[in-house]
Structures
1.
Amino acid sequence: MSPTTRRLGRLFGLLAAASIVVAACGAAAAPALTDPKEIVTAAVRTAQAAKTVHVEATLDGSIQADLSGTGGSGAAISLAGSTAAADVDLTAGNARATFSLPALLGLSGELVQVDGTSYVKTTLTGDKFQSQKTSDSLPVNPGDSKSLVDSIGEVLAQPGVDPVKGDDVPCGSTQCYTVKIELTPDEINALDGGNPMASQIPVDLGSASLNLTIRVEKDSNRLAGIAATASLGEQGTLTIDLTFSKWDQAVSISAPPADQVQPAS
């Protein structure tokens, strides 16, 4: 899988929830910001200190996907009602996530990543977790927040990428800045030195355009959410909304009991 595909996967952040850029709690209110690049840069900077985070995601849209891997046009798959949630220990690189894709044969499941091993259990694979060593080939790595931070920095550095500050919006008990970024296929591909994206996932992302809305808490510069819409032409449209909460709250993530695990087939 190319670095671009991994980065775009991380920008969306999820399907089995996991590795996302985070921002640490601030002890004092942050000074007001007006420049959209400064707002996103501030969120990236505060990311380095966070230890844990809770992430929730909702997906929608319909995509034309070749799930068989035969190179055909594939079939339309609805993502309506799809959700995921994850607790992430950023210091240890561990995560625990649940996910549900009701339109895909009622698929739901659980992912646990601990000490370089991933444990996955779904309604299609039985009542035991299947274990395998976590690999960089995974589109989302729950513990690798630094790569996502670097990717956001690369997005801001691309020629022609002009973030726009939107209206402030409520974020729970506080207020959030909003920053909107539109990326063309060329700008997305430029993240990988201009090379087209290799597609080891069932959707060709090489011609995708991407609209991002980033929400950043005004009083702490913590990342509060990312809404993304990917337009895939004839392959459909994918939307995802990520929300971030419970910064630096205690979380305990451990491997499933041995009698609930079997090697991946």
2.
Amino acid sequence: MTEPDVASSDARNIRTSITTEGDDFVINGTKWWTTGAMDERCQILIVMGKTNPDADDHQQQSMVLVPINTPGVKVERNLTVFGYVDQHGHAQVSFANVRVPISNLLGAQGEGFALAQARLGPGRIHHCMRAIGMAERALSLMIKRTIGRETFGKELVQQGVIQEWIAQARIDIEQARLLVLKAAWMIDNVGAKGARKEIAAIKVAVPQMTERIIDHAIQSYGGAGVSQDTPLAGLYAGIRTLRIVDGPDEVHIRDIARLEIKPYLS
């Protein structure tokens, strides 16, 4: 979905064109942050583009299956995340007059936006589940680091500021865990659309919480915390990126506010 030349937090901005010529779609555009495209096992891409620019805003886009070896598909480069190669990398991919059969359409024309939203809701909760695990790991590393290391005559773990970080981390993790469990319960019982507010809430709250705990863990390690000798720098890069992935914080905050206000306007 994501493109370098538009604000991709609004999927309606997508510029990649998917036109029809005979029995084929012809695709032109550039995507980036294409997770998995750098993996040698990747054989097929799901490309979202505009099949009908004149339709309603949410019915202009469609999703099409494109084999990665199709003429005109070019993996341009690997994008790093704060200098790290994340997973197998995230590719920038260009499409120049790429032709695929119309039968490669996913669903129906104009359903691309709906298909994307159906995936993003549950996908966001998976991100938050992993983020809680990251917070737990950072907290454990912080406690282990501060036991046995002395500053100004006593162990770091006995310093009031460190104890406050540890206690607040436990409180924040448990609050976040319960919020994620509620969102999961809502998805199971009313579907992702019905759980929209809860999903947006965890997507804001959990990465921010985890980022704060990782930051404190880095601080407790000093220079080691930003080096390759601990996993903390990598965790920090990942969690900071998660505040952009699958919708930036600001978009989710706007949605939560609108959903809270809506009953008062009806």
